[in-house]
Write a structure and sequence with these properties.
Number of strands: 10
Helix content: 40-55%
Number of helices: 10
Strand content: 15-25%
CATH topology of the largest domain: Rossmann fold
Shape: globular
CATH class of the largest domain: Alpha Beta
Order of helices and strands: EEEHEEHEHHHHEHEHEEHH
Bound molecules: adenosine-5'-triphosphate
CATH superfamily of the largest domain: P-loop containing nucleotide triphosphate hydrolases
Structural class: alpha/beta
Length: 259
């Protein structure tokens, strides 16, 4: 087992009276793909936000390489080499897909990057040198994102998800948080994205993959973390997770089938 690059220790978070996450602990090693699954409201996105720094825990810690990770998303990106995608893609529609990928990679700070982009006039901002622009093209092509010189506003939701993944991969992250990257993708998009995620993990990146599609996650992950009602109810090999009583209870016990 590789050293844990990312670990969550007893994370707890409430929103007002709603307990979103309670005492959640798990780890992701270098080069490991860990799938985080669970039905609607299980707490998956809250976990990703706590790791990414969009939310702060009420208690518990996120550690990167054994060091507590704190502060803003941009600080975490710089300190821990953390890159993420969002459940609802965050892009600047007035720029091309390629420029979105490059600016995201350069800035490593989505919020200030988007503030900059929001006021940018297309053509005035032409970020990155030739090498970076070409690398963006290669990453996008591997993902199956082919229309990267079109405006982001003209892309489909599936393409925007791939754009976000490309932007994350261009940062050569040590930790990649991928929130629902497969949602809305056709079969060829799923294949390209799966291959790219495996490639980035093979390079040593710790990948936390959150998705509703349990079958895809199980086919890719080294381990699966199953959440329900804000707590981790199973952490282990995908085959064991799929066969577990916890999985049956979470997805079938209540009559809810969420995949
Ligand atoms: N900003 C918020 N304010 C209030 N409640 C929230 C907020 N974000 C999440 N919650 C609540 O916290 C709980 C966990 O939500 P979360 O989005 O983390 O779950 P999830 O597993 O990601 O669900 P989904 O798969 O539907 O995205 C839910 O009950 C949700 O309604």
């Amino acid at each position: 087992m590789n050293a844990d690059i990312l670990s969550c220790h007893e994370l707890t978070k409430s929103y007002g009276g709603v307990k979103a996450v309670t005492g959640a602990s798990f780890a992701v090693g270098a080069g490991e793909i860990v799938g985080l699954v669970g039905p609607n409201g299980a707490g998956k996105s809250t976990i990703v936000d706590l790791i990414g720094g969009e939310q702060q825990p009420d208690s518990g810690q996120v550690l990167a390489g054994g060091v507590p990770l704190a502060g803003s998303p941009s600080r975490r990106a710089r300190r821990a080499g953390l890159a993420r995608t969002y459940q609802y893609p965050q892009v600047a529609g007035a720029l091309t897909a390629r420029d979105n990928i490059i600016v995201g990679g350069l800035a490593r700070d989505l919020s200030s990057g988007l503030a900059l982009l929001g006021t940018a006039v297309r053509g005035v901002v032409a970020p990155g040198g030739r090498a970076l622009r070409e690398e963006a093209g290669h990453i996008a092509a591997r993902l199956g994102l082919h229309r990267i010189d079109r405006l982001a506003a003209d892309l489909t939701l599936g393409e925007l998800r791939l754009l976000e993944v490309a932007r994350a991969l261009l940062q050569h992250p040590r930790i990649a948080l991928l929130d629902e990257p497969f949602a809305g993708l056709a079969a060829d998009g799923i294949a390209g994205l799966s291959e790219s995620i495996r490639t980035v993990a093979a390079g040593g990146t710790a990948v936390l993959l959150v998705d509703h599609n349990v079958d895809i996650v199980a086919s890719m992950a080294d381990r699966m973390v199953l959440m329900a009602g804000g707590t981790v109810v199973f952490d282990g090999a995908p085959r064991d997770c799929l066969a577990s009583a916890e999985m049956q209870a979470v997805y079938f016990g209540t009559g809810q089938v969420d995949r």
